[in-house]
Structure formats: structure tokens, C-alpha cells
Here is the input.
Amino acid sequence: MTRFLLSLCGVVLAAGSLAMDLHAQAAAAKVHVDAARAAVAPRAASKLRPYETFKALFDQVCTQPTLPDAMRTNDRSAVVPRKEWFTWPVEIFDNLHFIGTKTAGVWAVSSPDGIIVIDTNFHYSSKELVLGLLNFGLDPNDIRYIIVTHAHDDRYWGAKGLQDEYPKARVAMSAADWDVVARDNSPAQFKPRRDLVVTDGQKFTLGSVTVTAYITPGHTPGTLSLIVEGLTNRNSVASDNERHVAAIWGGTDPSIGRQGVQYYPDGRTMMRTHVDSLKRFIDVGTKAGVDVVLSPTLSHANMVEKMRYWRMANPDHSAGAEAGEMLKGEPHPFVSRDAVARYNRILLGCYEAQLAWRAGS
Ligand SMILES: [Zn+2]
Here is the structure.
């Protein structure tokens, strides 16, 4: 009887300590979620600038998972009709063009010495996306580098077609992510030949623009996050004709594995890796004077809204275009140090919360 009571006490105590752990976990996560939430909107929100509020980013990254971390296994090899993804390219700076789809960021950094394309989207869209460069008098044959931020289908499957079409262009990825490409279960015809292996801090300089790549594991084992320096804006509606610096955090949502390759043994290791990489990249960005955020998934930094606004301000996207009357004097929607700081605080707060929610795992 005594033994029974003792073991019952043990069970009750264990259950009690588990409840306390869960309580502590939830409290720790809440502190981080609250910090992230406080950064969603600017101090002085304006109806004219709805793109300043990062609600989509917060909602996606700060949601507590209801299921254990698992590999995503959906097969995206079927061709998606053009009307579902096509959107017009946009000149954001004189030397930075959006050439992506309705949801995915694909960017072209241009100079008289050549073009750097960042990410390639899918096999069915990439060749048409780079033809968007012709809109701005840029020749896709001048592409020198194709930097792929990470080894996921929506980032690299298009690289194979571009590699075949434009043999002068070097396809660049980290060693860890080239290894993922070699091992994953993607159809072989979508896999680019292993080409340029990017090292941490490697610079790609063409004329007056430089893209520096940092290896920031998290979303994949060798995700590249990029700093783009030397962006100019002749066409500004405000008086910000200085040079700008953009940051691209290479992969946003927590990802333990995809396309048949598991990157981390458990969710806690996965989130610890995200947090450590992000802290380092925020530091790098601060030192570089980042004042522009470009997100690979357009909704995360309200890219669509910003581009819509920018197109209204600059109807023909050409140098010297008259600003739209209603937007005259408004700032460039992509330039804001406050937005950069808030975007970073949301990401970091949400990643820390994700780590806290996995404390017992
Ligand atoms: Zn991804």
C-alpha cells in the first residue's frame, strides 16, 4: 500500500512538474511574441502607407505549431498555368528590378558590367521571368551570376533552364545546399549542374553594385542571406537620391526538411540554428547600413503593396518619370530604416518564441 502511494505521489509530482514546464515555456514564448507584436506597426501609422504594417509576417512566423515538426513532402513538379503566377516586372531602384511572380521574389541587380539574378523560381517560369529584363532595356544574355538563396523547389528548379539557356551565367549556391540538391528527390531534369560554390562573406561586384552572401543555416543547411550595396534611385518622389543598401533574409519559415532531405534531428536544433543565424545577419546588416528589406516570399515584407504604390508613383518606370500627383513628396516605399528594424525584431521575436515552444522537445 505504501509502495502504491509512493508511486502515485511520483506520478502526481511528474505531472505537476510537466505542467510547470509547459507553463514556463508558454510564459517565455509570450514575452517574445509580445516583443514581435509591438514591432508590427510603425509608431505613426499612415493610411497612405498600409505596406508599413508587417501583419502577414507576424501571423505566419509567430503562430504556435500544433503538430510536431515534419518534412514537407508536397510535389510541385506539375506545370502551373501562367495566368496563376505571372505579374509584371517592376523597376524598384535604377539597378534593382523585381522579376518574380505573384508570390515569389526573384530579383535582378543590374550594372553596365552585367546582371546578377537572385533566385529562379520554378522550371516553368524562370525563362519567362528573366525575359522581364527586356522591359527595362536589359539583356538576359548579360546575366553573369544567378545566386540561389536556398535549395528548395521554388528557388532553384528554374536554375537548370537558365543554365542551359545562358551558358555564361554562373549558378551560385552554398556547398551545403549544393549537397542538398544532389541528395533531394527533385526530378533530375530540374537540377542545375553544380557550379559556383559560395563561401561565407563572398562578394559579387559588378560596376558600382556589390552583393555579399552570408551563409545563414536555418531554412536549409546552407541558406544564403544577401546584402546588396550601391542601389540608386534617380526616380525618387522624395529627396532620397542617396545610395541604398538592401538585405534579403534567405529563408523565413521554420523548415526541418523538404524534398526528401531532413536537415535537423529535431525542432529545437532547427530553431536554435534559425535564431543564431538571424542574430548574426542582423548584426551584419546594421554594420552595412541596411535601409531596404526584400523578402523572398513577397507577403512577408508587403512587397506587392509596395510595388503597387511605387508603380503609381512612377507610371512608366523610366528615368525622369513624373511622380503620380497623389504620391508626390511621399517617401520611397522600399526605403525605411524603421521598417528594417521592425522586420528584424518581428523575425527574431517569433524565432525565439518558436524555440521556447520547443523547449521540451
Ligand atoms: Zn524555402
Remarks:
- The longest strand covers residues 224-231.
- Residues 41-357 form a domain with the Metallo-beta-lactamase; Chain A fold (CATH 3.60.15.10).
- The pocket of zinc ion is lined by residues 150, 152, 155, 219, 251 (CB under 6 Å).
- The mean pLDDT is 89.
